[in-house]
Amino acid sequence: MKTLSILALSCTALCLVLPARAADADAAQALAKKSACMKCHSVSAKKEGPSFKEVAAKYKGQSDAEAKLVTHLTTAPTIKVGGAEEKHTNAKGSEAEVKNLVQWILAQ
After folding, report:
1. Which of 39, 36, 48, 43 is nearest to 79 (CA)?
2. 8 φ, ψ to 5°?
3. Is CATH 1.10.760.10 the classification given to domain 20-106?
4. Which of the 8 DSSP states describes residue 23?
5. Taking the complete model, does pTM exceed 0.90, yes or no?
6. CA–CA separation, 87 vs 68, rounded Å?
7. Distance CA 56, CA 38 (A)
């Protein structure tokens, strides 16, 4: 019984340490392509915008990271691109699809 309790505690601790994973990574990547995110971003290399890994690092440890990114992807804030300002493209999906995309980005 002690072994089982220790194993359960270890799994719980591990779950708290690991980053959140998107429910469906394939769907998240498909939405990123459909929404033209990949025009300015990539998973690991900086393009016109930061890589998704850079975004994940920026928001690491912030309890409101998911909410901030969902808002960013659904309200089209003004961003700087090449010294000029323009509207960020909205994610073209349902609230659940955008949330899945954000979880995938934060898991990078």
Report:
1. 48
2. -65, -40
3. yes
4. S
5. no
6. 17
7. 16
What are 63's strand-pairing partners? none
3-state secondary structure of 105: helix
Give the three-class secondary structure for 42. coil
> Which residue, chain included where needed, has tokens 């850079």?
54
Q: SS3 for 4?
A: helix
Terminal CA-to-CA distance of the chain, rounded, Å?
A: 37
Please name the residue that has the structure tokens 């890994």: 53
Locus of tokens 């025009």: 39
- For 54-75, write each residue's pLDDT tens digit: 999 999 999 999 999 999 999 9
